[in-house]
Amino acid sequence: MPDMFCDSEFAPAPRVDAEGLSRAAGADACRSTSKAALTDLLWLSVERGMAVATKELLFRGAQANGLSGWELRPLHVAGSPEVAALLLDFGADPAATEEEEGGTCLHTAAGHNSAGVVRELLSRGALATWTDRRERTPLHWAAESNACAAIQAILEASSECIDARDAAGQTALAVALVRGQVDGAEALLQAGADPLALDRCSRRAVHPQLWAAVLEARHQLKLQSRLPLLLWRQAVLAARAETPHATDLHSTPPASSPPSSSDAASR
Predict the structure, then answer these.
(1) Number of neighbours of residue 190 by Cβ within 10 angstroms
(2) Residue 189 sits in the same domain as residue 231
(3) Among candidate residues 92, 127, 154, the one where a domain is terminated
(4) Does pLDDT of 3 surpass 50?
């Protein structure tokens, strides 16, 4: 059983076996001095947020910027702010991109709703305006995943990207709404995202008449934080205008129906 894990307090030997960490890196990878094997082990410890093991592996030569067998860099799967900080201390590049979509570690942390990691990265030089291959910012990734804590963490650091557009001209708010991520949409709206921003096909995130109905309903019901309910109310959606600029939001309500407007008024 690898003495590396015992020395670094990664886990007792039986637990290492049970988690399959040595098998994941190869039959005898834990005793190997191969930097590739060490990097695979580093990826596993980083993903689990194990700071002591991460530090030990880095001291033993694991590459903070190395690609694992899964074509990911350790910083892209950082499971805690502590391991993210260690990787940065050992020279990990926060601007390095992953292979599939070209996202940075800030993109992946935002998509996983890892708000603590997001804050650590932003405090250490990562930029909220970085984009992937589709020109999407970390805020787009957070919006797509309904990652409200990450949305808040990004916008606390900078509001510069709140209405940034991707290659299709969509803002993070538009992405959230098309995906039906109403909690994320509410967080963005409350932070000041523009609901009437046009994409490259002249479509708006929210139809102007729908948005007017939402604002009126919120005023009448004296609700300040119930936008998910109001955005998806059947009565509001049924009142949409027939225009060529209607988006999926207007024709595809979520599978589960929200409470009725009469229920909302009684609360």
Answers:
(1) 14
(2) no
(3) 92
(4) no
